[in-house]
Hints:
The complex is a heterodimer. Chain A contains 15 helices and 17 strands. Chain A is α/β, with parallel strands linked by helices. In chain A, the strands form four sheets. Chain A has a six-stranded mixed β-sheet, with helices on both faces. Chain A has a four-stranded antiparallel β-sheet with strand order 2-8-7-4, with no helix packed on it. Chain A has a four-stranded parallel β-sheet with strand order 11-10-9-12, with helices on both faces. The longest helix of chain B has 24 residues, at 2-25. Chain B contains seven helices and four strands, in the order H-H-H-H-H-E-H-E-E-E-H. By secondary structure, chain B is mainly alpha-helical. The relative contact order of chain B is 0.11. Chains A and B meet through helix 13 of A and helix 7 of B.
Amino acid sequence: MHSHGSTFSTKRKLWHFHGGLHLEDHKSMSLQSPIVSVPVPEKVIMPLQQHIGEPPEVIVAVGDKVEKGQLLAQAKDYVSASLHASTSGSVIAIDQQAVPHPSGLKDLCITIEADGKDAWYSDLPEPMQPFQDFSAAELRERIRWAGIVGLGGATFPSGVKLNPGPNKDIQTLIVNAAECEPYISCDDALMQSHADEILQGILITLHVLQADHCLIGIEDNKPEAVKAMQAAIDQAETENIEIIVIPTIYPSGGEKQLIKILTGLEVPRHGIPADIGLVCHNVATLFAIYEAVELGHPLISRLVTVTGEGVAEPKNMRVANGTPINYLIEQAGGYQKTVKELILGGPMMGFTLNDDNLPASKGTNCILVTTYENTPPNSEAIACIRCGKCASVCPANLLPQQLYWFARAKDFDNVQEYNLFDCIECGCCAHVCPSHIPLVQYYRFAKTEVWDREEEKRKSDIARRRHEFREARLARIKAEKQAKLRKKKDALTGKGSASKDPQKAAIEAAMKRVAEKKKQLMDAGVKPANTEGLTEAQKKQIEAVDKRREKRPS
Amino acid sequence: MITAIITISLLAILFGLLLGYSSIKFHVDGDPIVDQIDSLLPQTQCGQCGYAGCRPYAEAIAEGEIANKCPPGGEVTMIALSELLGRDPVTLEDAEAAEKPKSVAYIVEEECIGCTLCIQACPVDAILGAAKSMHTVIKSECTGCELCIPPCPVECIHMHPVETGITGWKWPFPQNDQSVQETS
């Protein structure tokens, strides 16, 4: 069942990754109604850190009037992403605000009070049309300017991924349209409604990467999206872009898992797909690339799936960056009565929010509201019975049970030895665990703990160097002081070489040199040449002189 | 009989020479175990262990001192040291001190009289200042050893706990796992 009209995919062999799960997808829930554009709320709160890497530098001040698409914070570091105003209005605060993060901590945010006009910034860059006329570097610069990050959830700056470096020859672009996590349907909805734009994004990305081939991986539970994408490809008459329909197995949308399914290749440990000639992008990211290049629009909105049994009208929405989550829930008809949890992300990899007054950011792909009726009651974890189910479902081929024991015992050397950092936190192991052990929580705990230790170690090494430097400096100062004191003392008592007359010293040195030379000659058997043919009287005189010399202390 | 004695003696000489040669050829400067111990210690140089710094304590541990006297390192350091040395883990001498949150020194600049006493006390040169000028702590270099506090004649140095932002945040140890309480 891999065809769906494509001539390529019927021939193509698909591979399998280890493990994985068949889950009930619950996706149709949010696909019943069309995508709605959420009206801009009264104020938007935009966290500076919406991506992996360094936060950008704020270039606006409180009180500034800004327009939609205007730059608010500029990326300075290479791995960073710029931030743009998602609506027009005035900056009313640049301060610490609650952000959607598992810690529940606050972070620096820019708050804009919307003026309701939602007017575009007048100084936006020109559309780059046709994109073929522009160099890869120019296009990459545009994508970087637009603050585009991986919209599949990882939020890694896309400009960095599009610059694999001179030594890496990229042959294939992998388009991640698997959307394997239950409930989430925003990529599906985007493909159904904007297939042409996504295709344009693919062509731009192929041009930037100088890649000649593109594989689009879509799970077979999205026939409408496949149809729409195939229609776009057929219309564009491009031959190097293939849609590959893959079986619905969670987590086929994991980057490494999707690459394995489509190509049979495995990304090396500690490596990136570019090491094996691949670059992987999510469909929503490609759509954002299209908008940046062909329209000159920065990334200021995205599709968000607001779904779950806990909301009245689940749907996909186009959401301005920084729109509060409670406002989105309202747009979806509000909470139902028996709400259990508010989850950011999907049921497998998302995390629970304790507050709904938090902004939706670039990485927000789904807001899931669960109810007590539709989710199993929270069971308390009981002892591991060593059934090994976790190992059989692990898509990263790890030993979850071993990792659990080590993480529980805080044995952080062994968790690394057993490749904890290859864990993608997909949650398969915890899902199948008959003892309901929160395995992923243990892995997350261990990972952040290891990072913390590494940081501590780095700091302690610096402290050691500074301490040793200080000790050395103190010792040097002490030695210098003592030397000075000794010199002074010597000068006072008139002893030692320091008190000698320089003239006398010169004479002494000259005498010493002569004596040394004489001795050398004597040792070599050379005697003074003028001792031959002397008279007896002269010889006696010489003897007497030698005797006197011997008597005199040298 | 004689052959046996000669053989054994020859062997003894041979191995003696071999050992003698090896000890010169593979000579190791310093004591590597002290370096290894030192690298596990937190380098606060705080002296809470009773030694003049981390290195002296590392030397003492190498000579048999108990590895449980380092409150900044806490249980983690104790366990790491026990593993390195093949000793049994022991309870911390001062478990209370080990649970103190990480903090850095802060000088109330209005109160500082510029006496330089704290500068002299700081083991990692993390205090900046000159005589009769106000001093300040370089936050990123401060190890939180508290050695600057006692010398201050005007008590203007306080310890401030280090704030963890989102980047330094750690996932907590899972609380809802009953099996942990049962077995350990």
